[in-house]
Amino acid sequence: MSTGHVHPAALLIIDMQNGINHPRLGRRNNPDAETHLAAVLAHWRNRGYPVVHVRHVSRQPGSVFWPGQAGCEFQPAFTPLPDEAVFEKNVPDAFAASGLERWLHARGIGRLVIAGVVTNNSVESTARSAGNLGFSTQVVGDACYTFDKVDLNGRHWPAEAVHALSLSNLAMDYATIIEHTALL
């Protein structure tokens, strides 16, 4: 076992694009998520740790992430710097057909810190894959959020419940759930 330098975790920021703020997505939880994520991002950048931005490029016309319109662009606070990696995806999982896994392995990165949106969709899907692929994975629960959902039986679930259950699913087998202050 190597006792050499442990490479810092890569910060994986999921889908922090303008479209996620579209009113049609409905009521969300965790209004402080962007503030928490910005603090983590600043911490990573100040230390020169690797930052990876993931952008969803939808294949569905009318999507808030449809290419070529403002919703697909990164939010100003989360615009990648020139030396930060950007991966595009067309499905919730950032690892699916993106080259992300190969990019991380090529740099010796075995630890991931994941934050962004939507907790129960792209964040959960990506964190599940990260765990399944053998990455040591942390999800920054207070730097993620989701929206109210209606289940297949027509029952309304508040965003807070959807968020909590999604993080609980991840904590079972895929990732450790932390708060942003644990990283600062």
TrEMBL record:
GO terms for molecular function: hydrolase activity. Residues 9-159 form the Isochorismatase-like domain. InterPro entries: Isochorismatase-like_dom, Isochorismatase-like_hydrls, Isochorismatase-like_sf. It holds the Pfam family Isochorismatase. SUPFAM superfamilies: Isochorismatase-like hydrolases. Keywords: Hydrolase. This is Cysteine hydrolase. It comes from Pseudomonas eucalypticola.
